[in-house]
Design brief:
Number of domains: 2
Number of helices: 10
Radius of gyration: 28 Å
Structural class: mainly alpha
């Protein structure tokens, strides 16, 4: 995700320079044929350049709005994930009664918090089609990670295990019906967030929105020098290339933000958000353990800070 106030030109240039170079060569050819060799037939003086540009701008605006709507909805969903993760952790740590017997295993409330952290990391990997098992082994242990590896939808499997842990807590007298219902509502919201993210991931923009703008932009850029060469002459390549770059850049940017879970520079910053979730939840869990006089040493130190790289975080 972009975190700078300005977008460096070098982020757009690698994707646009080939198209611009071909158009520049064509623009120069048109200008030379018209101004040097005086072949007036190459000019389309009656071409309504301004109305065509206005119509194309409206068409690009529709596609950009649709793409930005998908990107913004994805960001809102992950914002909800952060909020509900904090709420669930607060409920796990404050609403579950203390266990009455001494046990060898860690407190059940801490296991629930770790499952919530694992859910955030697993959902990120699930949407980006990456392997989540290495992180799950660190968070939940190899045994649980191996059990989860048989599932195709690991975030849903983690949610299921969380429900089973809550059922265990209720059977042990740590939860009553009212608190069970309150926690279950937030756990259901986790499934709703995952389903909404999968809908965006698996439902691309209609193909008409993907191909027609690119075709129309290319047609307009090829016709543009023919329509302005009569007025600008040898200056045509400069004006035509600048105008073409504007439309090509708009086309590229709208296509890039239309898929917010593809792990690009315009992606929803799921890595940063999932690490934020882990940091916040571990802090709450550690503070609660200190209050109760219990502390579990971490298996492995996890670097939780996120430093922007060249103006971007992922």
């Amino acid at each position: 995700m972009i975190v700078r106030d300005k977008l460096p030109l070098k982020r757009i240039w690698p994707q646009a320079w080939r198209r611009l170079l071909v158009l520049l060569i064509f623009d120069c050819t048109v200008a030379v044929i018209y101004s040097v060799f005086h072949h007036k037939w190459i000019s389309l003086n009656g071409l309504p350049v301004a109305p065509l540009a206005s119509a194309l701008t409206i068409f690009l605006a529709f596609r950009t709005n649709a793409a930005y709507g998908r990107w913004w909805e994805a960001r809102q969903l992950w914002g909800k994930l952060v909020n509900y993760s904090r709420a669930l952790t607060r409920q796990y740590l404050t609403m579950l009664d203390d266990e009455t017997e001494e046990r060898d295993r860690p407190p059940l409330r801490n296991e629930l918090v770790k499952h919530q952290i694992a859910f955030a990391h697993a959902l990120r990997c699930h949407l980006r089609k990456q392997a989540s098992l290495p992180e799950l082994k660190t968070l939940l242990g190899e045994e649980i990670a191996d059990e989860l590896s048989v599932y195709k939808n690991i975030p849903a499997a983690i949610n299921l295990r969380t429900g089973k842990l809550l059922r265990q807590a209720r059977s042990e007298g740590m939860l009553d019906s009212f608190r069970w219902t309150a926690i279950d509502d937030n756990l259901t919201e986790m499934s709703n967030i995952q389903g909404a993210c999968e809908r965006i991931k698996n439902t691309p923009l209609p193909r008409q929105f993907e191909y027609l703008p690119r075709i129309l932009v290319d047609v307009f850029c090829w016709l543009l020098p023919l329509g302005i060469v009569d007025d600008l002459g040898l200056v045509t390549p400069i004006a035509s290339t600048l105008i073409s770059f504007t439309f090509i850049a708009a086309d590229l940017m709208s296509r890039e933000i239309s898929n917010p879970f593809d792990n690009t520079i315009h992606d929803t910053p799921m890595t940063a958000l999932s690490r934020t979730i882990e940091l916040n939840l571990r802090e709450q869990m550690t503070e609660t353990d200190k209050e109760r006089g219990w502390h579990e040493p971490s298996r492995q130190r996890v670097r939780l800070d996120v430093t922007p790289v060249d103006g971007f975080v992922f």
